[in-house]
Amino acid sequence: MKFAYRTLSFLIIAVVGFISCNKDDGDGVIIVPERDRAEEAIVAKAEIEEFLQTHFYNYEDFQNPPAGFDFKIVFGKREGDNANKIPLIDQVSSKQVTDRVKPEVTYTLYYLNVLQGEGQSPIFADETLVKFKGQFLDLNAFDASDSPVKFDLTAVIQGFQEALVEFNGATSFTENPDGTLSFEGFGVGAVFVPSGIGYWLNSPSGIPVYSQLIFTFNLLDVTTDIDHDEDGVPSFMEDLNNNGFLGDDDTDDDGVPNYLDTDDDGDGVLTRDEIIIHPDGTIEFPDSNGNGIPDYLDDTFPNN
Questions:
Q1: Same domain, residue pair 272 and 218
Q2: Do 159 and 297 fall into the same domain?
Q3: Cα angle value 193/195/197 (rounded, 5°)
Q4: Structure confidence at residue 39 (pLDDT)
Q5: In this predicted model, what pLDDT tens digit does every residue of 48-77 receive, in sequence order?
Q6: pLDDT at 6
Q7: Shared domain check, 269 and 168
């Protein structure tokens, strides 16, 4: 199976500020009171499970790919001539995901693993190259790219990130005469994202608040050891509490998480100057005062 890589653009499923409410504030902005996240998680699960029970995907195409098959997942409703198709609910996998805003709330994240992929698997701090399509549960699309685009997994919505890390990228690629790239052995899947680990109230234009979303994707490539702030410490190593989320690791409490902060402990000495990067790429973290805290995270050094 192959894909042509035509253009590389940087597309991030970022949180775009959007205020919504049930009465006009006088400026034409409609503000919607925030719902209870635990209650909404129950609603989201029911809506997604109903979709999974009543819909199928083009699994027969993947079992016997026709000539020129594009390896795209296509959903349909189980009715009429398709009434006997295998429902998605019998084909998806699931995982429990903790709400980052309200950790006592968990979500069942359903994802469809059509092709695992045979290359590198990403982690939460990596960068991925994907083709994707975003849809609502009524199967209307709100975004898509048939050309590979890069996703920084620290910037995408949680539900999409949690699905991509379950897959593998391509094993190899070849350059075509026209300069495009063809990938082989890539992962193909879909994820059904509850609103609480989707956009919630921060929906981009065109996506209603509290929407349950579907993303189909082809995971083509994975870039590891990203250092977002170029401080010498790969971002995955800045997850100090080991929860797979970089936004809540802020050693100096300055409002900038460590993976974006060039002075992690706020002592006036750059992180890069408080670590040792050896020629082979390995990193040493000195603890000059022997207090068990490496210098780059210890604001008592050197001013102790």
A1: no
A2: no
A3: 70
A4: 96
A5: 999 999 999 999 999 999 888 999 999 999
A6: 36
A7: no
Q: How far apart are CA 193 and CA 160, in angstroms?
A: 7
Q: What per-residue confidence (pLDDT) applies to 28?
A: 64
Last residue of a domain, one of 199, 223, 247: 223
Answer for the pair 268, 260: CB distance below 8 angstroms, yes or no. no
CATH number at residue 144: 3.10.50.40
3-class secondary structure per residue, the chain: CCCEECCCEECCCCCCCCCCCCEECCCCCEECCCCCHHHHHHHHHHHHHHHHHHEEECHHHHHCCCCCCCCCCCEEECCHHHCCCCCHHHCCEEEEEECCCCCCCEEEEEEEEEECCCCCCCCCCCEEEEEEEEEECCCCEEEEEEEEEEEECCCCCHHHHHHHCCCCCCCEEEECCCCCEEEECCEEEEEEECHHHCCCCCCCCCCCCCCCEEEEEEEEEEECCCCCCCCCCCHHHHCCCCCCCCCCCCCCCCCCCHHHCCCCCCCCCCHHHHCEECCCCCEECCCCCCCCCCHHHCCCCCCC
Domain boundary (223, 258, 293) is at 223
**The pLDDT of residue 26:** 59
Q: What is the pLDDT of residue 210?
A: 96
The list of the chain residues with pLDDT below 50 reads 1-23, 304
Domain of 88, in residue numbers: 4-223
Say whether both 167 and 292 belong to one domain.
no
Per residue in 85-122, pLDDT (tens digit) is 999 999 999 999 999 999 999 999 999 999 999 999 99
